[in-house]
Structure formats: C-alpha cells, structure tokens
Amino acid sequence: MASPQWRDREHFFVPGKPTLSRGQQTVAQFSSPGGEVLVRPPAQGTDTSAAVGAAAAIISAGMKSAQWVDPVSNPVRRGFQFGVWAPETNKFGANARGENRPHQGVDILAPFGTPVFAVRDGNATRGEDATGFGKYIVLEFEVAPGKKLYAFYAHLSQINFLKPIKVKAGTIIGSTGNSGNASKIPSEEYHLHFGISTLPYPTIGTKHWLDPELFMKIPVQAKPEPAKKEESSPK
Predict the structure, then answer these.
(1) Is 152 left (phi over 0), alpha (psi -120 to 50) or beta?
(2) Most CB atoms closer than 10 Å: which of 51, 105, 168, 214?
C-alpha cells in the first residue's frame, strides 16, 4: 500500500489511502480510479506513516473545531431528484448519479433566498458558471498551519460582496437560489450545492474533492408518506 504524498505546500490531500479519525471511530479513506472517496473500516496493516497521521490530524481538526459553522442552518440533504425519491443521487460520490456521473458535493435543501454562512474564518471570492454552478462562492480556509481547503457554495441567487473579502465563520456571505444547471428543478427541491475541494477552482470529476459529510452531519430529508386513498362510502 503506497503512502500518500504531500502534493505541495498548499494542498495536503491527494488520492491515496490515509487513515482518518472521526470521533471514536477510525476509518480509512480510499480513492478509486475515478476519484470517488469511499469510507470503510481500515484493513489490517493500514499505513500509519507520519504523513498519514498528519492528514488525519488536519481533517479531524476540520471536523471538530468549534470554529466550524454549517453552511445553512439545520442542513438536510435533498431526497428527491425531479420529483423522484432518490436521496443517494444528492450525496457526494463519483457515481452518485449513475455510472460516470460524479457529484462533487451534497445538495442541501434550502428555499430560495436562504442565507448561507462562512463555515470557517477565511477568504471569500465569487464566480459564475452559467451551465454548472451558476453563481457561486469559494471560501478558502485553513485547517492547520499552512494547509488549506476550499468550500464551494453553488446555485446561489445572491452574493453579498463584489471583491474578494476576509470573513469570519458564521458571516452571511450570500443567499441560495437556482442559478446554473439548477434553473429547471422544481421549487420544492431548491438547494445549496455544497462541496469541499483541495483546489480553489471547479474541476471535472471528484478527484480533488472531499465528502462534506466528513466535516458535518447532513441527514436526508424525511420521505413523505404516500397519500392515502379515500374509501368510497357504501351506497
């Protein structure tokens, strides 16, 4: 099993097999050829080199830090996909939406205009991609000295700044919407697409992305009970 390598001074994570600690549970993070991040119990003899331990400490700090603020209040993952109950399609994964159809983050239900918050202290910039993320924000934040990650907030209706700014965790930086490729979804499925990357710009696939649920708990929305048919009264 090859040890993960530090790609450069700026980005600590590369597809590999680091051991991570989530609370009291130890898990191993594997990357498939397509870049999908899978979480499973570590195999016997899992690499415990210094580099792996450092990566574990960094991600653990990101999950447990009191500075973390969820991107929206009481986040819940979208359960429907254009009217069809399909919660698995709205989570992170290389094949979340079918073979070779990656999803680079999680879709968090949010009515149009819901405030979005900076998850950590950091530097926020804005962008726009009419056919993808729509109006989006990238928040650069530090998870350990000299080690940075980038939170992406996509499909926004409003961004609360024009030029790059420094923000504190919990600052309202924009509002949810349906811009980009979310423009045709039903209003009851409006959501914030939230992703965490090791790079400060959008990329194809999931190679450079982390599962946001390593950092926060996002339960899926409750599945509605099927409507009961009214029984006809006897004549």
Answers:
(1) beta
(2) 105
Cβ-contact 108, 218 below 8 angstroms = yes
Q: State the pLDDT at residue 218.
A: 92
φ, ψ of residue 62 in degrees (nearest 5): -65, -35
* pLDDT at res. 193: 96
* Whether the Cβ atoms of residue 109 and residue 90 lie closer than 8 Å to each other: no
Give the residue from 213, 207, 195 showing the smallest Cα distance to 129.
195
As a whole number of angstroms, the distance between CA 177 and CA 233 comes to: 46
Mean pLDDT, residues 143-159:
91
* Residue 165 predicted with pLDDT over 80: yes
Amino acid sitting at position 83: G
Angle at 22 between CA 66 and CA 121, to 5 degrees: 30
Answer whether 167's CB lies under 8 Å from 159's CB.
no
> pTM score, two decimals?
0.71
Taking CA atoms, 69 is separated from 72, 75, 184, in Å, by 8, 11, 29
60: part of which helix (H) or strand (E)?
A: helix 50-64
> pLDDT grade, residue 10 (50/70/90)?
very low
Higher pLDDT, 114 or 14: 114
How far is CA 190 from each of CA 10, 179, 186, 202, 210, rounded to the nearest angstrom? 34, 10, 7, 21, 23
